Amino acid sequence: MKCPVCGCTDSKVLDSRPSNEGESIRRRRECTNCQKRFTTYEVIESLPVIVIKKDKTREAFDRNKIMNGIMRACEKRPVSVDVMEKAVAEIESEVNNLLQNEVSSTYIGELVMNKLKAIDEVAYVRFASVYRQFKDVNTFLEELKSLLGEKGLE
Q1: Mean pLDDT of the chain
Q2: How does pLDDT run across 90-117, given as a tens digit for each residue?
């Protein structure tokens, strides 16, 4: 590790501890040349996940797109940002745990719908209406019936 003061590449680690909820390691170092102390962070390098969209184009996975979609679906609903952020983190984790370089947008959309169904049913229906591109009121009603059927309210 290169010293930010003198540029020497020789340093010793004085202290190591987990940081960012175990996602990285914080190391306190001391330069063996000038004795200045500095902090470094070590994180796991991850390969980017590529999303294959419905039109077969490819783009990098972007958690912000998922968060924006969930926020739009939950607009004016009693769902906290913490709950939405947790759902996005769980979806991102599931995608990364697939250990695949490419994943379909359809798969991600289904993950989002499953999370929203558990969080808020109105948000779920809002998201589903855009995601599944309901053509008319009948397809919308069919989705509502299936939702009610799952809850045993039909």
Answers
A1: 87
A2: 999 899 888 889 999 999 999 999 999 8
The secondary element (H helix, E strand) that includes residue 15 is strand 11-19
CB contact at 8 A, 31 and 13: no
Task: Measure CA of the first residue to CA of the last residue in the chain; give whole Å.
Answer: 65
Nearest of 64, 37, 149, 50 to residue 105 by alpha carbon? 50
Tokens of 31: 């330069």
Asked if 101 contacts 49 with a C-beta cutoff of 8 angstroms, the reply is yes
Amino acid at site 53? K
Q: What's the CA dihedral at 129, 132, 135, 137 to 10 degrees?
A: -40
What residue has token string 């779920």? 124
What's the distance, CA 22 to chain centroid?
Answer: 17
pTM of the model: 0.62
CA separation, residue 46 to residues 18, 41, 53, 97, 101 (Å): 18, 15, 21, 11, 10
Helices and strands (H, E) in the chain, number of each type: 5, 6
